[in-house]
Amino acid sequence: MGPGGAVLGALRKTLGINDGTEVLSVNHDGVWLGFPLRFSAGRATVCRPDLAASRSKLDSAIQQILKGEHAC
């Protein structure tokens, strides 16, 4: 789906026509940061990320940096 389809999909969920999840994101210094919103009857609920998984990924990246490896 292209940008136009993404906008229409988000609008349909915001208006309560469809239920589902949309990820809102922004480009910050070349990195896309965002979080998912779950829509039900036009109401949005923030879907919090799995912090345990995030912590594990961050710990792994730090260990790779300390070893002189590339993090990605």
Secondary structure: number of strands: 3
- Secondary structure category: alpha+beta
What is the number of helices?
A: 2
Q: How many strands, which pairing sense, and closed or not: the largest β-sheet?
A: 3 strands, antiparallel
The topology string of helices and strands comes to HEEEH
Share in β-strands: 25-35%
Which overall shape is indicated by the principal axes computed on the Cα atoms?
elongated
Spatial order of the strands in the main sheet? 1-2-3
* Rg from Cα: 17 Å
Model regions low in confidence, pLDDT < 50 over at least 5 residues? none
Distance between the termini: 26 Å
Description:
The mean pLDDT is 85. The chain is built from two helices and three strands; from the N terminus they run αβββα. Strands 1-2-3 form a three-stranded antiparallel β-sheet. With 72 residues, it is α+β, with helices and mostly antiparallel strands.
Give the key terms.
single chain, 72 residues, alpha+beta, three-stranded antiparallel β-sheet, 3 strands
Tell me the layout of helices and strands:
Blueprint: H1 3-14, E1 20-28, E2 31-40, E3 43-46, H2 51-66
Antiparallel strand pairs: 1-2, 2-3
Summarize the entry for a quick read.
The chain is of the alpha+beta class.
